[in-house]
Amino acid sequence: MVLVVADGLGGLPHPKTGKTELETARTPNLDLLAADSLTGLSVPVGPGITPGSGPGHLALFGYDPISSNIGRGALSALGIGLPLSAQDVAIRLNFCTLDAGGNVADRRAGRIETELNRKLVAELSDIRLDGAAVEMATESQHRAVLVLRGEGLSPLVQETDPQKTGVPPLPPDPLAPDLLASYHVDETFPTYGPNTPMGGLPYGLGLSISSSAFNQLLKAEIESGLLRATLTEIDLGFGPIPITAGFLSLLVPQFGSIPPATPLTIEIEPALAPVVTGNDGPFGELAEMLIPHLLIRIPNPNSATPYVEFVIEVTVGLEIDFVGGELQFLLGTLDAGYILVAITENSINASEAQLTNVVLTVAPLLFPSLADSLGTFPLPDFLGLQLPLVEIGKLGEYMSLFVNLTPAP
Fold first, then answer.
1. What is the pLDDT of residue 263?
2. Residues facing residue 385 across a β-bridge
3. 3-class DSSP state for residue 220?
4. pLDDT per residue as tens digits for the range 31-65
5. What CA–CA distances, in Å, run from 324 to 91, 202, 204, 321?
6. Which stretches of 235-329 are DSSP H helices?
7. Model-level pTM?
8. Domains recognised in the chain with CATH numbers
């Protein structure tokens, strides 16, 4: 049996002839096949919906194109024999041509020869990424496949093809996260009284946030690329100091093999979303936050392997402030007794005990930068009224903010 699909032949009547493209074309071979075959029309997804190649092919072979839509990348990777696991992210690529202004001139690079495709893939295969192994393969002509392999990868990334020429490629921005997959804490919604729970003060408006809602916010920030920091200087209590090889050699002597003036950075990146546990902070803060897998690395600018890399687990308190109509989230005191350290890279061959002690000493100095990346959240405008703060505290199990409503001057 041969299945022939005339994909993309639908059209509208030409205003002069009254015929579509297919009606106008001379098709003796198709006519011969149709005379001795079963023919029909197919609506792969639904009326008015133009399917992509992935859903279209799945529908042709009897799969539900919506619930079974695994993505074009996975189909392309499996089609050329690349193995995939549940943690992998497969991406279908098109080589394109950009003009001098960086705009797309040809979305398919003139349908280049497959041999040129292989040369381009070979060059791009030298790319190395932190946290993911990279595998590229040629499909044919302008088409290629990229597979990223690693833990915690998400396919929720915007396509870079703008679907038209004359404009630049789109940025690969993260798409909306799955907030319901965040850590849930069972808490009872509070009952509001006429006065604040701690000071017994009257107030005009009370706002409360549960631990689960806060965890959804934290997960969204992680999946949107926030809660990360790259430090070029550090404050030891008497002003910012640039991070150089010479400065780091005071803490870890092995950095003394690098020219002292060499500028370096310290990167901080949560691999997993922090969670608010529902408990009070370790030193009486409003809430307790667990940061389960925080990567801290000092990259080597001349190598894909960092000089050193640590994974730390931190338990820290969380406070809320309200300044200028905006909520601010502050991290509490960071104590070495609430930090667990694992060394994952040590290319400078320093003493692991020494590195661990340095992390326990320096980590509290790094956290203000991470707290800054939490950002601020402005409250919506209430009919032009000002919201002077009355009290911040806990109402039952919920973190709560109490304000008054006063006319603006």
1. 94
2. 382
3. helix
4. 898 898 888 877 777 766 677 777 888 888 887 77
5. 44, 21, 17, 10
6. 245-251
7. 0.54
8. 1-41 (no CATH), 80-175 (no CATH), 180-378 (3.15.20.10)
